[in-house]
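Title: Comparing notes on inverse folding

I've been comparing how different people in this forum approach sequence design from structure. To keep things fair, I'm posting one structure and asking everyone to reply with a full sequence. Here's the target:
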């Protein structure tokens, strides 16, 4: 029987009033049945599942590369950093690179804990209603982790290659290694279907009635499931489903609101406050980094997300990208500034999303201390749902007013003149405007790589769109997917096949 080192609560376990830290020392070692036979231990496992999801999504192995891979390969940022990061940009990543294994193993570790909850909780007889909630949250997390794996490792998973190699689907919790554990990669179609199945089942078991802001935005809700499903459906090319899921989220107006200005979406947290930083009404789901009460600064401390371009170490926004914003675009002025007291090299720019420093710097949004990477990291927010629906509508119905209105809801609030339907020569021109808006709106949120890959082979792309236009080193579509870690290929004796080109 597999043993689990059980960590006492993650702050995400606030549902029962826990007030504990993300990084409390292990309480003990339990077998899987033991870990789910009480509410307290099952909830702690649920928290650790969220924690593993966060760690896999943001930190492998250092510098927040799991998050920043979305920006560093498309010209939004430039590197001074590690050879691994450079290899990502140059398309020279190899299957034995440590960060590749960290991404793969990290997401599967989170999936395994989700599987424990999903498979073993139904055998217990304590508080069935709460068990069902935990199972639903586990299905949401399993879906999210599989989607991350598919975006990173799936062979043409973002380019319509539905019958090409995705990733292995494991729905049974790991119970000791033998050769039966060696399963091949499922197709992208099969992985997408499992992701949406999990999200649909989770959405049906959850609600949008939570009144506590922390629980509403840091734990899965029905709208969280539908928001993620909106992105999944868009990426897989199912426009009808992308529209339907988007509409379900847009209907929850009492909980999620498109704010009137980008400046309100990411609050100014640079005046000394760095614990329990606020969420905004536009955020649907996030990683609550600031809720760890440990104020000790140390390398790898889970209290710090460590993303390179927020920590101001080896990754920097490029002047070329910043200059692409319109002169009156609020996002250009609010999210990027020049040198900080700790970084004096001329010309380096600092993003100001997720600003959480102490000390006074002009403008105040600029972090000036090691607290600068304590801020919560948003994963899903309402602006994306507007643009998801707009893109799906264009792909389904062509050049119509509805997607223009959705695009303008994001474009105009940034201080830019509204688009008109007559201003677009054809549907592709509107589609390209939507993708460009996604670049501007979600810069430094780790999404651009996937958008650019999705349109990377489309004819007629403007020079500032498409991964081949933005990064001349990634012209080979084989390298838009990362290599499967070499150990997994070798240990399974080739049952898990390597991606083409590696």
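Reply #1:
Here's my take.
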């Amino acid at each position: 029987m597999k043993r689990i080192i059980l960590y006492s609560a993650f702050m995400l376990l606030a549902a029962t009033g826990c007030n504990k830290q993300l990084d409390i020392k292990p309480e003990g070692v339990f077998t899987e049945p033991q870990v789910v036979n009480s509410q307290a231990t099952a909830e702690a496992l649920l928290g650790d599942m969220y924690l593993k999801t966060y760690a896999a999504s943001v930190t492998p192995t250092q510098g927040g590369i799991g998050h920043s891979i979305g920006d560093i390969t498309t010209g939004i940022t430039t590197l001074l950093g590690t050879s691994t990061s450079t290899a990502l940009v140059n398309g020279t990543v190899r299957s034995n690179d440590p960060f590749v294994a960290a991404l793969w193993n990290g997401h599967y570790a989170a999936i395994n804990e989700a599987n424990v909850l999903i498979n073993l909780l139904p055998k217990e007889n304590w508080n069935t209603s709460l068990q069902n909630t935990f199972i639903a949250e586990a299905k949401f997390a399993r879906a999210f982790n599989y989607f991350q794996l598919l975006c990173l490792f799936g062979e043409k998973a973002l380019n319509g290659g539905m019958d090409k190699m995705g990733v292995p689907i494991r729905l049974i919790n790991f119970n000791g290694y033998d050769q039966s554990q060696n399963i091949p990669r499922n197709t992208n179609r099969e992985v997408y279907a499992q992701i949406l199945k999990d999200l649909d089942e989770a959405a049906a078991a959850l609600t949008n009635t939570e009144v506590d802001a922390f629980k509403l935005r840091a734990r899965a809700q029905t709208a969280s499931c539908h928001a993620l499903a909106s992105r999944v459906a868009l990426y897989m090319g199912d426009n009808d489903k992308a529209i339907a899921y988007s509409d379900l989220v847009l209907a929850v107006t009492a909980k999620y609101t498109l704010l009137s200005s980008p400046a309100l979406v990411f609050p100014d947290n640079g005046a000394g406050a760095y614990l329990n930083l606020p969420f905004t009404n536009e955020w649907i789901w996030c990683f609550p980094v600031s809720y760890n009460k440990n104020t000790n600064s140390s390398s790898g401390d889970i209290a710090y997300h460590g993303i390179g371009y927020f920590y101001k170490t080896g990754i920097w926004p490029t002047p070329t990208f910043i200059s692409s914003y319109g002169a009156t675009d609020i996002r250009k002025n609010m999210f990027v500034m020049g040198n900080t007291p700790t970084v004096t090299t001329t010309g380096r720019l600092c993003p100001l999303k997720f600003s959480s420093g102490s000390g006074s710097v002009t403008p105040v949004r600029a972090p000036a201390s090691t607290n600068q990477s304590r801020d919560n990291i948003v994963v899903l927010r309402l602006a994306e749902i507007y643009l998801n629906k707009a893109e799906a509508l264009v792909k389904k119905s062509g050049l119509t007013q509805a997607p223009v209105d959705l695009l303008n809801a994001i474009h105009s609030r940034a201080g830019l003149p509204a688009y008109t339907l007559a201003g677009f020569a054809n549907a592709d021109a509107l589609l390209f405007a939507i993708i460009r808006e996604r670049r501007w709106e979600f810069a430094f949120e780790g999404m651009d790589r996937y958008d650019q890959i999705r349109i990377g082979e489309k004819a007629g792309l403007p020079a500032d769109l498409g991964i081949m236009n933005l990064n001349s080193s990634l012209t080979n579509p084989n390298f838009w997917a990362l290599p499967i870690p070499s150990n997994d290929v070798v240990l399974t004796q080739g049952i898990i096949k390597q991606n083409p080109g590696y």
